[in-house]
Amino acid sequence: MRTLFFLLAFVTLSAFAAAQTRLQVVTKTVEKELTYSTGQRVNLTAQKADITIKGWNKSTVLVRLKLIAKHPEREVAERELGYLNYDIQTRNNVIDLSNRFTIPQRAGAIKGNLKAVYEVWVPTRCPVSVRNTFGDVSLSDLASEASIQLEFGKLSVANLSGKTTVISDYGDIDASELSGFFTIKAEKADITLRELSGSGTIQSRYGKLSIQPDASLTSLSVQAARTEVFLYPKRLDDFQYEVETTNAIIRVPDAYGDSLDANKRRFTYSASSHKPTLLIKNSYSPVVIQLAAGGITLAK
């Protein structure tokens, strides 16, 4: 009986502790639609925010911002929600969006979890600049200039066809249907690029890079260090290849093994001089080229 009593007491206390630590969530939602003139830029500077920006066929910019505070005590969550400040305004022909934390000196450290969530719709050809730390960013259906700077989050990109510039530190990148002209510079990030076309350059350090090039890709230059590089063309003969590694090997399908040099650190192949060139240089990590269809034995 004594054992049963202690067991019941433990269960009761555990349930009480779980109830006490249940998070209270307090939110504030702001929605604003702004007039837009051709060529006007949207500039978003954020902290601890999840950001979604989509192109649409309207001639206005719609911003929906949700500010969120979480803490087991509702009073604390409500108070700290007031630390989240934001701006949504047009100045000097730029639409500026931002959020920041303003903490009174007497308040000390933040006790809860504070976050901002943006949903932004812009005209398809609207130039966009985004800077974010400790949060995810998603961009889709844009055909103008997009500049993204990201730290400690994830970037998702779909159907961007203008000029795209990405700088990412500790932020993974997942992109599909990226075209136009692109520049990607990343450190300590996993990068996945599907149906990649257009023309561009990629720099990567201490990460992983997987590329599925579309046959319409016009040029690609990759400079990598300590980054595993995987290239998945649908047909090897869609491109010319100039691939080099330092202190690592290159692996290609068996049928193309003759184009590897003796120590497997250089692969040069061209089905036709009219095909675009894929230039890849890597150090201290391998480069693997395999047909996207799979089922291919790689040269060892």
Automatic annotation (TrEMBL):
<feature type="signal peptide">
    <location>
        <begin position="1"/>
        <end position="17"/>
    </location>
</feature>
<keyword id="KW-0732">Signal</keyword>
<protein>
    <submittedName>
        <fullName>DUF4097 family beta strand repeat protein</fullName>
    </submittedName>
</protein>
